[in-house]
């Protein structure tokens, strides 16, 4: 079974802990990493790529010191190694212009305002990782317990 990673990025430890807690149902199947800055996340995805691991999803806060979440996700979006990586933005402070920038430049797949509902966040992550697995043609059978069955059935038709 190939190693599939979900990367969570937020400069506030308590928010990061909440995201990790909400994604706990996926942690038995997928490897979930946390980073406290965009630069740390970029280093991590480079390491994971060098080790031949998959970066299926990046969930990032928007307002962070240094690079914002939109800047991080835009950089990842522009890197051909991660063309299938799914991107989710979490924020409580984005402006309308920030949101448009995230959609247009970072090609985000999902957007959640803080505070979010844990079940909705986990379901969205599950659906995005499932899409990633099918887009890359990864053998999904080892991940069945953590996949979004609606996406699976739609793809298998």
TrEMBL record:
The modification 4-aspartylphosphate is found at residue 61. Keywords: Phosphoprotein. The keyword Magnesium does not apply. It comes from the Bacteria. Residues 5-129 form the Response regulatory domain. This is Response regulator. Pfam families: Response_reg. InterPro entries: Bact_response_regulator, CheY-like_superfamily, Sig_transdc_resp-reg_receiver. It comes from Enterovibrio norvegicus.
């Amino acid at each position: 079974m190939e190693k599939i990673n979900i990367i969570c990025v937020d400069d506030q430890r308590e928010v990061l802990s909440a995201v990790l807690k909400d994604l706990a149902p996926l942690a038995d199947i997928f490897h979930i990493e946390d980073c406290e800055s965009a630069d740390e996340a970029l280093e991590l995805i480079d390491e994971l790529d060098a080790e031949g691991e998959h970066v299926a999803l990046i969930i990032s806060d928007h307002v962070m010191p240094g690079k914002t979440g939109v800047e991080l996700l835009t950089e990842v979006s522009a890197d051909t190694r991660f063309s299938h990586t799914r991107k989710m933005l979490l924020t409580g402070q984005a402006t309308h212009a920030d949101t448009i920038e995230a959609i247009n430049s970072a090609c985000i797949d999902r957007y959640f305002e803080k505070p979010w509902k844990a079940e909705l966040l986990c379901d969205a992550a599950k659906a995005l990782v499932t899409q990633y697995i099918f887009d890359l043609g990864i053998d999904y059978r080892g991940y069945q317990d953590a996949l979004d069955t609606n996406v699976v059935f739609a793809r298998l038709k």
